[in-house]
Amino acid sequence: MASPTEMTGAELVAAFVDEFCFPKVFLVTGGACAFIVDALGRNDATDYVCVQHEQAAAMAVDGVWRVTGKVGVTCATSGPGATNLLTGIACSWFDSIPAIHITGQVNQRESAQTLGVSVRQAGFQETDIVSIAAPLTKWAIQVTSVAELAETLPHALSIAQSGRMGPVLIDIPMDVQQDVCTPEDLETAFTLQETCDEAEPGCTSAEDLQDAMAGFVNEAERPLFILGAGLGLSGTARVVQEFCEASGIPYLSSWGGMPFLDRSREHYFGSLGVYGDRIGNLAVQSADRLVGLGTRLDNRQRTGNPSGFAPFARILVVDIDGEELGKFAHCPEYTTMRFDLAEVAQALPSASGCQKRTEWVAELVNARVQLASVEESAADSAGMSPYRAVPIIQSRLRSDAIVVADCGANLCWVYQSWGPGDQQIFTAGGNSPMGYSLPAAIGAQIAQPDRQVVCFIGDGGLQMNIQELQTIVHYQLPINIVILNNNGYGIIKQFQDAYFEGRYHATGRGYSQPDFKKIAGAYGIEYTKISTITELDNLEIKDGPGLIDIWLPEDSSIIPKAEMDRFLHDQFPYGDSAPLQPIGFEYPERPSQLGTSV
Ligand SMILES: Cc1ncc(C[n+]2csc(CCOP(=O)(O)OP(=O)(O)O)c2C)c(N)n1
Ligand SMILES: [Mg+2]
């Protein structure tokens, strides 16, 4: 640490960021955070990136961590600046991404608390961001002195990065920003706590998990592993993948887990869920023992009717978060074990001791061939189709590319058609706000300036964070933005087709888009319109900034999709024939309970 003898609270923040975090802080300034911004600017080792909306700052730092593993920091002013962060904070919260959010707060002497009154607001823009952010953060705290700030910074970083990771928020009143630290404060601030003890209580031992997994695998005729994002975040997805390959166990990933795996391997059978692969879902419904590692098995995976999910299987779920496991407490077919998956290498059974299930794998390989033709015929008949566009674009990207997907149909199209390869793909899977991919791509590009960065987005999503085009232009970031443009809120329209007799309230009616060519022109970004297959075939991806506007038929559907009142293995479009039946079990035609899935 460069240690000037005198440092203010604001300077301490800057010095801490320099030492332990990604050194560029994403922010929109304001009076209540101006001292911190000034300190970041004066510190030689730190800098700031000005975005146009605080939600973009929070989404950008979410992207920073995903591509570097370095904790990103935002800074926002009190009141609207702080509340604007929330949608982005929620992305990190639901997807377990560490981040530090710093908000300025009014001077303590002006605050309602000091005045001892329960008014809505005393100081200008005074807002209780700590209470508001609490349910979306691992820790949200207002510090009342520089000494407390010095204790809080390392503790907050440790909390963000340990156990089930996530964002934290530190609210710093203006007087604390200006107060001077003592030498003891500096020592406290720069002494990192090694570990955080939160994950340990209630965790099962590696031996017990090993026994449980070995039992599941060896009693199964058709074992199946599901590898989730939690495994990827623990850094052990490839270890488990190697185990599955060596022991001949088929496995799937959730969309959150997908980026962490080599998807070209023999025993990988795609993803599962409402928008998952037909073969993945068929495997789920055919398995008699399922092992889920670091996966929440949420409704997008099990459908709105979880009782129809692998109803004949016994399911072992392993997660670091005991509360997640509590969801299955009332389901007798689920066994749950709390375990830190960073240590999973010690808990895997011996691959050579696992009985090989070659027939099961062969049946899945055969089913995959049969099912592929269902999708191919649906995609081909559409002519200009997202399922044609996305693979073409993927094939033109560099192998080191970072690809960020947004929300809605465009997200599904990208994830459903993303082939194996070294490019890194991610999205805000749990919160999934429209407009995430643009600022997340900005964060990724600033953190990894030498890599190619592309974001996919819908015409609707782009309008949610369109102001960030100026950030791209200002910093001349070579990002390419690919709009999968169906002139509407496609995913919701598909839902309305299924459940509202095609009444397009607030998705078609009430919705419109601007002329994106003029938008690109106004920002000074190169614009390319693609509306025919020939244009698509000739598309070159040059260094950006670029806006590639791919015009799709307005009724382009997401296929496959599991709809209400159907089993996972019976996805839309249904075709003329009955769905391929799961292997080994007799399913009734429909599940016994109804469930809705968007
Ligand atoms: C901030 C936010 N508001 C509303 C929604 C609900 N929503 C999910 S997808 C969607 C439509 C997205 O339209 P577009 O970006 O054009 O994507 P498409 O489905 O057409 O590909 C809406 C309104 C959301 N996810 N996020
Ligand atoms: Mg759209």
What does this 3D model show about the protein?
By secondary structure, the protein is an alpha/beta fold. It folds into three domains: 186 residues, Thiamin diphosphate (ThDP)-binding fold, Pyr/PP domains (Rossmann fold, 3-Layer(aba) Sandwich); 165 residues, TPP-binding domain (Rossmann fold); 169 residues, Rossmann fold, CATH 3.40.50. Helix 2 links the parallel strand 1 and strand 2. It is globular, with a radius of gyration of 25 Å.
List keywords for this structure.
Rossmann fold, six-stranded parallel β-sheet, 3 domains, 38% helix, binds thiamine diphosphate, alpha/beta, globular, 598 residues, binds magnesium ion
Q: Tell me, rounded to a whole number, the average pLDDT.
A: 94
Name the shape in a single word: globular
Low-confidence stretches: none
- For the record, the CATH class of the largest domain is Alpha Beta
Number of helical stretches of at least 4 residues: 25
* Class computed from helices, strands and strand pairing: alpha/beta
CATH architecture of the largest domain: 3-Layer(aba) Sandwich
Fraction in helix: 25-40%
Say which molecules are bound, naming each kind only once: thiamine diphosphate, magnesium ion
Please summarize the sheet with the most strands.
6 strands, parallel
Sheet-strand content, in percent, reads: 5-15%
Global Rg? 25 Å
Report how far apart the termini are: 50 Å
Q: How many structural domains are formed by the residues?
A: 3
> For this structure, what is the CATH homologous superfamily of the largest domain?
Thiamin diphosphate (ThDP)-binding fold, Pyr/PP domains
Number of separate strands: 18
CATH fold topology of the largest domain: Rossmann fold
